[in-house]
Amino acid sequence: MEITSFKEHHISLIPALQLLQKLGYTYLNPEQALEMRGGKTTNVLLEDVLRKQLKEINCIKLSSTKTSIFSDANIENGILALKNLPMQEGYIAACQAAYERITLGKALEQSIDGDKKSFTLQYIDWQNIENNVFHVTEEYSVMRSSSKDHYRPDIVLFVNGIPLCIIECKRPDMKEPLSQAISQHIRNQQEDGIRQLYVYSQILLSVSTLHAKYATTDTKEEFWSTWKEDKNTEIESGISLKSVQDEYFYYLCRPERLLELAKDYIIFESGIFKKIARYQQYFVIKKIIQRIQNIEKGRRKGGVIWHTQGSGKSLTMAMLARKIYQTIRNPKIVLVTDRVDLDTQITETFGKVEVPVQNAKTGNQLVDLLKSNSDAVVTTVINKFEAAVNQIGSSPLESNNIFVLIDEGHRTQYGTFNVKMQKVLPNACFLAFTGTPLMKKEKSTAQKFGGIIDPPYTILQAVEDKAIVPIIYEGRHALQDVNQKALDREFDSVSEPLTEYQKADLKKKFSKANLIEKTEQRIDEIARDISDHFTQNWGLDKTGERSGFKGMVVTPDKASAVKYKKAFDLIGKVTTEVIMSSPDDREGNEDVHEEPTDEVVLFWKKMEAKYGKDFERSLINQFKKTDYPDMLIVVHKLLTGFDEPRVVVMYVCKKLIGHNLLQAIARVNRVAPGKEYGFIIDYAGIIGELDEAMNTYSNLADFDESELEGTFTDIKKEIEKLPQLHSILNDIFKAIPSRYDILSYANLLADEAIRTEFYQKFFAFAKCLKIAFSSLEFENNTSEKTKSLYKKNLKFYSALRNSVINTYSDRIDFKQYEKQLQKLLDQHVTTEEVIRLTEQVSILDAEAFENELEKVIGIRAKAETIASRTTKHITEHMDEDPVFYKKLSELIQQTISDLRASRISEIAALKKLKEYREQAITKKGDDIPVGLQEKEEAIAFYRLIVSATKLNPDQCEAFANETDAIIKEHVIVDWTHKLDVLRKVNFYIGEYLIDELKMPIDEAEILAEKCIEIAKIRYQA
To answer: How many distinct structural domains can be found in the chain?
Structure first.
């Protein structure tokens, strides 16, 4: 039976290279690739290929019958323009410059027949894919920017010699293979890494046979995406997709798809972020472009697109506008939003897609832009658009090249205004984007836009794709005692002058006004509860460090917002600011006849005096970019369209219904580092009983039930998992009879598979316990005995985890959870301090290592710790002296095996392992001749030839000295990447082995290669 190989090369890299060649890429081995860039690892472009292709794909069209070519000087200028990127302006600025150069080309002046003009040199033929050349290479060695070391991405894909795609492959049996691959990409893009390569790349892939993710440059790990495509997609003949890895190469890397994604589905946002389309964005844009190219009865068919909030709706619109701009001749694109802040946000977004943008601030200006020949994208708000529509009136604009993209905040566009739009723009194509499900009654109206463009991108899909985080809901209630008799008596006194009818009307009005919800005592109590909840879960830890997360408080009206602000300030646990419209503007459901209170007016004036007239923008920027404030208090503003990923919790203190509710809660579903859930804490009863949340909430009956699936995660359901997670964690150690037998726990966790399972189960338990402790439901309905048991076990397993991480030198990437875990321990485990059993130290620091070793209890634990740290050191230095370190590693493993099988005593094992650690540090043994004792590099060659041949010690010593001399003679700057130098060294070593030691040629070649591999690590110029 053939044994499956789990070597990275065999299981991931080789199949990848084979498939990529079938897809149309020409393979270059590392030596060929190096040769094509002039033998310099500081170069990243295949300049020979690029130069040839620039001549092939470019011509200067002078007339319908006459063409010319770019001069050799301009070809070189074009190459230079692609190489000279503004790295000094920052990584993203350089990435954007490279992207624009690759996609837009370079304008170059050239004289033809004495006439000097500017012509555009293209780097890629985007229209005729077959005119480009595609190469793939492996282990692409690039010198780091701050040292002579090199990083070697596994696979690089080139188009016309430009590296457009970089791939890291990992074995599927590794721990977190995708995470490791992504981490490698991120490491490579650090300032001291190989940014000079990544700056040209548009797509990055991390693959591991059964799993894969993709991103573009400078993407944090949390935002790497999955790609999903219909399995019924027709695959090219001769291509077989046997794994997820194969699917990603086919769907993302086949030449036509790679160029399409690189050109049309990359966007730069705010000069800070570079983003690539997710699969749902790509497919909906493709579908819309196909749809609008057909003209029926004088107009193009539009439609409604539902992509759930947080899934990148604004970017979809921006990429769609760019694609329309490129596809339709002389289009007039109008983007309509329903709020000024959304209009500003979208205008800024559109300004980043190489399309001219003009913002229409008045109805007259919008009419002028609609009638003009300008090809700019026009952005405006709904009331300006409505004014323009009314102004156009009986003189409709009949062009079918008008595209109205509507970002619906309030469904304003459904209804009578939609009819007006259709009248004055009879042939326009209307494309409406929504982030919430359509009500059944709205779906019939939506048909007037052209129907719903399937498929929608639902909340559940977005959660599964990790495009958004799931939302946990908890209902809370502030208990109030109402003295009905006293209340009635006071009411009668106040209303005495009124008629019975007027009294009834007044009572009805006040009943509707929910005044009880706005009482100062209720506000104070809720503010105190919010303050405690936020500080316990996301406030400062014991060291004074912040979690970085933020909150929002939704209040009934402006007066209440000001009262909440005062209450929070008095309590002093959290910092807050109020965002609301001016006192004379109606906001949300405020009564149109209600006058602003003196308190609101005074507050507004105070804010203007402190921050200036534009204080809202200033406060929002502070909230987004600094630690201040912890929370924003809002009435209606920012409940739609506001995007700050660090908002982790929303405290709802007023009734929200319908799509307003769904839009509001989506403020907490954005992805951010360390954020696993968004939380909705409900003080207003917005959903009613938790068990009947979706059924009892009347307005939600208007939505299709399937579209709401995944909206909330019931906090009860999360807490119900806790006993099982606790039990599963305990079950790992069920064979250990006593909790006090710490050594048995450590011995059991010597098995890496069990250790990995323990880490995973521990974090699942800790994460769920954190959610539980944030819930009143858990606090009120869980016995003190059970809570105490959970806390005690959390503390024990946390200490155990710290101990085994250090004992076995594990590196676990749970950084995003560490602060949360520490917060949980600080808050709920107070009996005594949790201490780290040892600190992480290098075995080379003998004194520090011995000091830490003394902290480890038990001889066996000391032996295991020495073995683990020494093995780690050996792994890191294996290539420097493979024979020596391999032998030492085997001795350590044998000693540990003997110890665990009780074939050797603990004391004897500890003694042996100390000796091996000493050898690992000094790199010396009894087998080294006296003449080589001080020649560290030559010792490695001596051990190599001794292990590979039966030559006598004198011959082996002579070979070691000769090899050392040959290499030192040829060492120059970057010698390890100069093929001519490597060939010479190989020749001279081989010549000595054959001529002096009479070794067969094939054996000599193998041994010479092994010597060079050692030398590459040990010898630097």
So the answer is: 6
Do 649 and 538 share a structural domain? yes
Tens of pLDDT, residues 408-436: 644 554 555 566 677 778 888 989 888 76
Cβ 549 vs Cβ 644: under 8 Å = no
Q: Are residues 449 and 595 in the same domain?
A: no
Question: Any residues with CB less than 8 A from the CB of 980 and at least 6 apart, and which?
Answer: none
Q: Which amino acid, one-letter code, is at 883?
A: V
Residue with tokens 């909440």: 564
Asked whether residue 970 is domain-assigned, the answer is yes
| Contact criterion met (CB below 8 Å) for 552 and 577 | no
Q: What is the pLDDT of residue 589?
A: 46
The Cα 809–Cα 971 span in angstroms is 36
Would you say residue 475 lies in a domain?
no
Say if 462 falls within a structural domain: no
Q: What is residue 632's predicted lDDT score, i.e. its pLDDT?
A: 96
Q: Which domain holds residue 539?
A: 516-672+686-718
Give the Cα separation of 679 and 472 in Å (integer).
5
Q: pLDDT, tens digit, for every residue of 872-921?
A: 777 766 666 676 777 777 778 778 777 776 677 777 777 787 777 777 77
Which run of H or of E encompasses 483?
none
Domain boundary among 828, 859, 878: 828
Name the amino acid, one letter, at 409: G
H or E, element range at 61 = strand 60-61
Region 14-40: mean pLDDT is 93
Task: Name the average pLDDT for the chain.
Answer: 79
CA separation for the pair 72, 247 (Å, rounded): 41
Find the angle CA(618)-CA(630)-CA(610) to the nearest 5 degrees: 35
User: Which of 876, 899, 922 is the C-terminal boundary of a domain?
Assistant: 922
Strands 332-337 and 142-143: unpaired
For the stretch 971-1021, pLDDT in tens is 887 777 777 788 888 888 988 998 888 888 888 888 888 888 888 877 876
Task: Determine which of 606-610, 631-635, 742-746 has the lowest per-residue pLDDT on average.
Answer: 742-746
Exposed, middle or buried by CB within 10 Å (0-12, 13-18, 19+), for 495? middle
Please state the three-class secondary structure of 504-570 as a single string. HHHHHHHHHCCHHHHCHHHHHHHHHHHHHHHHHHHCCCCCCCCCCCEEEEECCCHHHHHHHHHHHHH
Spatial separation of the C-alpha atoms in residues 810 and 793, rounded to whole Å: 22
In this structure, the answer to whether residues 900 and 1013 fall within a common structural domain is no
Pairing of strands 106-112, 115-121: antiparallel
Percentage helix, strand, coil for the chain under 3-state DSSP, each rounded to 5: 50, 15, 35
Cα end-to-end distance, the chain, whole Å: 49
Pairing of β 332-337 and β 402-407: parallel
Same-domain status, 714 and 729: no
Within this chain, do residues 177 and 39 fall inside the same structural domain, yes or no? yes
Q: What is the CATH number of the domain that holds 598?
A: 3.40.50.300
Helix (H) or strand (E) holding 818: helix 815-828
Pick from 945, 958, 956: which is nearest to 1007 by CA?
Answer: 945
Shared-domain flag, residues 57 and 145: yes
Per the DSSP assignment, residues forming a β-bridge with 713 are: 472
| 213 shares its domain with 168 | yes
| Domain-located, residue 491 | no
CA distance 292 to 305: 14
Instruction: For residues 955 and 904, state if they share a domain.
Output: no
Q: Which element (helix H / strand E) includes 267? A: strand 266-269
Q: How many CB atoms lie within 10 A of CB 256?
A: 11
Closest CA to 90 of 265, 264, 261, 217: 217
The set of residues, in sequence order, having a beta carbon less than 8 Å from that of 206 and lying 6+ positions away, is 167, 168, 170, 178, 181, 182, 185, 212, 213, 214, 224
Q: For residue 528, with 0-12 CB atoms within 10 Å meaning exposed, 13-18 middle and 19 or more buried, which class applies? A: middle
